[in-house]
Amino acid sequence: MNENELTPAAGADLLLKAEVARREFAATQAYLQRGRKFKDLSDEDLREQWSEACREWSKRGLYDRPGVYDDAEAELRLRGQPLPYDIVQDEMNTLVAEADARVKQATPEDYRKMGEQLVSQYVEEREREN
What we know:
mainly alpha; 130 residues
């Protein structure tokens, strides 16, 4: 491997970051299309809306994130506001622990399937855009 080639771990990291960015963009786009329902909230009320949604997400589990979480996050990002993770540390720790447990249980075949799924989703999204 030469210095311009990615290691498998670096490639996976880039793919994951690209997927996170794609999802954030899609969530923001959907939020804008639905009419930006949180635009009139104060920054403080918006942070509270986001943190309440985060608490709900933590109760529901990693794969059952409330839509209001994505909308509040999109509005915060549109305003250039940082996400107030400091007020939901326990909830985030719960979600991270669940994610860690799932990763530890994953087999190499699971990782291969996840990678294939991410690539397939990316290709499908690109084809819909064209």
